[in-house]
């Protein structure tokens, strides 16, 4: 209800107007059988055509008024529900964009897509239904019972019995349906995740010829979704006919007992006719109410899933200050283990200092914790113990947005988005001029852009599919350069470049126009040798820190890397 309260306050006026229209429409529908009884009793039975016209005209007017109210509430319901859906999707997207890395690891992307699309649509349909049908059903049901009781209390006892039976059936339906619909939404998550995984790795699937295996995985998830769908619908499939049967039996009993009462002058033809119509209205409203509760159960599951997203932890801790840091970095006895991971620290008691304007290469075996430094410096995660100090500030007292405004990162796997080359580069600086774009591209050795048909206006496919790995890396490096942040992190960002191109990029980064601290995460000893200082890591620990010459004398791990790569001729 907390979720709906926010949007209810935003659209309470049109909502109340829609509720009023629904109520008045239901009143018009309820007057129909009563007017019909007057037509039969006062007009047809007495042979008075005047009375037939009199009551018939009133019945026509009431029907037209009800139709006007119906059109009004339909228009309001459509507008309010769609606007609420748009707001909900926007709020969800904003929330997801502010996820902490822990939250991002917790909720699968396929599940998030389902929650933003299917679950949101479920809520939109429910809100639309509330304003169009759902509120009308109980009014119509209760009103029919009251007016029928006013016509003939004896016949109304039959209605009370029918309503009691239907209430029990609806309660049973709700108790059984909710867990099944929740499982249905989770099964839909699995299908979306499988499709997403295939689309992301479609080239790899084709390269390894694992199409049949992926198809089997999807068929398994699809079959599970089908079974969950059948299971959730099975309750409705059984309950709905029972409801119809209960009301149908009630109608037959009304006609039978009504005929007996008619013979002893305790009921007249108009009353029995009106009762029959009221029973039909009760049947219709009860079926609607059943659909309401079915929709409510599904919406309750969707609401819970969307609520889980809004309850996720955020990391965008905003600061009122906008500090421009100099770029000095200090790790003071830092230990960190990934949340929800194995529990083994990825970094253990790590300490080192890099002064402003210096370059640091981080090298070590795979899994030694090199890339984890990047995530900690960007404050995607907070350390378990120890301190990370930027200039003289503990990183924990700086807002995450403030930290990231002072750090530019070029990830190991370059990520580009659909749009032009210029639009992708301007992620670094949205106000950059074309000359600044060209300068950044030249420093990153991305001269190939000018050879593209549209130059910097050339369109890239999603993920940069129309570029090679090296081209994507160079554009990613240019984007990082363009940000002009005090700290630049290159997370194995030149792995797809040849030795000559990489050397030119490194040389261009040295000729910097301002005092920028550069951290190079690398597997290559040749890359590390170009840095002012080298940090050697193994099993998350600092096993060596200093210049190339110093490490060649004191660090066995670095010596092994050097001898393996350089002296064995594996790296030029």
Could you please describe the fold and organization of this structure?
The chain contains 19 helices and 12 strands. The protein has 572 residues and is of the alpha/beta class. The protein has 3 domains: 309 residues, ABC transporter transmembrane region fold (Up-down Bundle); 157 residues, P-loop containing nucleotide triphosphate hydrolases (Rossmann fold, 3-Layer(aba) Sandwich); 73 residues, 3-Layer(aba) Sandwich (Rossmann fold). Strands 6-9-10-3-11-12 form a 6-stranded mixed beta sheet, sandwiched between helices. The chain has a 4-stranded antiparallel beta sheet with strand order 2-1-4-5, with helices on one face. Strands 7-8 form a two-stranded antiparallel ribbon. Strand 4 and strand 5 form a beta hairpin. Helix 2 packs parallel to helix 6 and helix 2 packs antiparallel against helix 10. The mean pLDDT is 81.
Q: How far is it from the N-terminal to the C-terminal residue, by CA?
A: 65 Å
Helical residues, percent: 55-70%
The number of helical runs is 19
- What's the arrangement of strands in the largest beta sheet? 6-9-10-3-11-12
CATH class assignment of the largest domain: Mainly Alpha
Low-confidence stretches: none
Domains, number: 3
Kindly state the mean pLDDT as a whole number? Answer: 81
Q: Please name the fourth-level CATH homologous superfamily of the largest domain.
A: ABC transporter type 1, transmembrane domain
> Which percent band covers the strand fraction?
5-15%
Tally of strands: 12
CATH topology of the largest domain: ABC transporter transmembrane region fold
- Biggest beta sheet attributes: 6 strands, mixed
Return Rg in Å. 35 Å
Q: Would you tell me the structural class of the helices and strands?
A: alpha/beta
Shape-level CATH architecture of the largest domain: Up-down Bundle
**Global outline:** elongated
């Amino acid at each position: 209800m907390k979720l709906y309260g926010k949007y209810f306050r935003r659209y309470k006026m049109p909502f109340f107007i829609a509720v009023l229209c629904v109520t008045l429409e239901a009143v018009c529908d309820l007057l129909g059988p009563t007017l019909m009884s007057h037509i039969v009793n006062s007009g047809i039975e007495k042979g008075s055509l005047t009375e037939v016209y009199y009551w018939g005209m009133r019945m026509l007017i009431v029907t037209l008024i009800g139709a006007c109210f119906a059109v009004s509430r339909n228009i309001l319901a459509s507008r309010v529900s769609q606007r609420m859906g748009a707001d909900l999707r926007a709020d969800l997207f904003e929330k997801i964009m502010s996820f902490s890395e822990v939250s991002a690891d917790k909720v699968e992307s396929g599940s998030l897509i389902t929650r933003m699309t299917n679950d949101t649509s479920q809520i939109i349909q429910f809100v639309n239904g509330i304003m169009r049908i759902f509120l009308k059903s109980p009014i119509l049901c209760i009103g029919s019972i009251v007016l029928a009781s006013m016509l003939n209390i004896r016949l109304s006892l039959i209605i009370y019995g029918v309503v009691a039976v239907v209430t029990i059936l609806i309660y049973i339906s709700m108790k059984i349906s909710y867990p099944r619909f929740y499982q249905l939404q989770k099964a839909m998550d699995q299908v979306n995740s499988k499709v997403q995984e295939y689309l992301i790795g479609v080239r790899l699937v084709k390269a390894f010829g694992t199409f049949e295996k992926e198809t089997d995985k999807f068929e398994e998830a699809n079959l599970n979704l089908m079974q969950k769908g059948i299971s959730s619908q099975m309750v409705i499939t059984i309950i709905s006919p029972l409801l119809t049967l209960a009301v149908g039996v009630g109608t037959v009993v009304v006609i039978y007992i009504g005929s007996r009462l008619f013979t002893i002058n305790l009921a007249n033809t108009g009353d029995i006719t009106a009762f029959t119509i009221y029973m039909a209205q009760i049947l219709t409203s009860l079926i609607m109410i059943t659909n309401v509760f079915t929709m409510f159960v599904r919406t309750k599951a969707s609401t819970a899933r969307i609520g889980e997203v809004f309850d996720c932890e955020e990391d965008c801790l905003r600061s009122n200050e906008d500090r421009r840091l100099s770029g000095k970095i200090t790790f003071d006895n830092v230990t960190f283990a990934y949340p929800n991971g194995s529990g083994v620290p990825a970094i253990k008691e790590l300490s080192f200092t890099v002064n402003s304007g210096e370059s640091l290469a981080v090298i070590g075996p795979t899994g030694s914790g090199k890339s984890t430094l990047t995530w900690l410096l960007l404050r995607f995660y907070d350390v378990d113990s120890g301190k990370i100090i930027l200039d003289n500030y503990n990183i924990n007292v700086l807002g995450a947005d403030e930290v990231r405004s002072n750090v530019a990162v070029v990830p190991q796997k370059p990520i580009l988005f659909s749009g032009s080359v210029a639009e992708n580069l301007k992620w670094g600086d949205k106000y950059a001029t074309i000359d600044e774009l060209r300068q950044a591209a030249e420093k990153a050795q991305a001269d190939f852009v000018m050879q593209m048909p549209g130059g910097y206006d050339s369109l890239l496919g999603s993920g940069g599919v129309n570029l090679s790995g090296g081209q994507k890396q160079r554009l990613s490096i240019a984007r990082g350069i363009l940000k002009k942040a005090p700290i630049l992190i290159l997370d194995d960002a030149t792995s797809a470049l040849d030795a000559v191109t990489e050397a030119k990029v490194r040389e261009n980064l040295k000729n910097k126009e301002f005092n920028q601290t550069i951290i190079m995460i690398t597997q290559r000893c040749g890359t590390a040798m170009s840095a002012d200082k080298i940090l050697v890591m193994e099993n998350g620990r600092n096993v060596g820190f200093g210049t190339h010459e110093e490490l060649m004398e004191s660090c066995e791990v670095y010596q092994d890397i050097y001898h393996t790569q350089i002296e064995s001729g594996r790296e030029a």
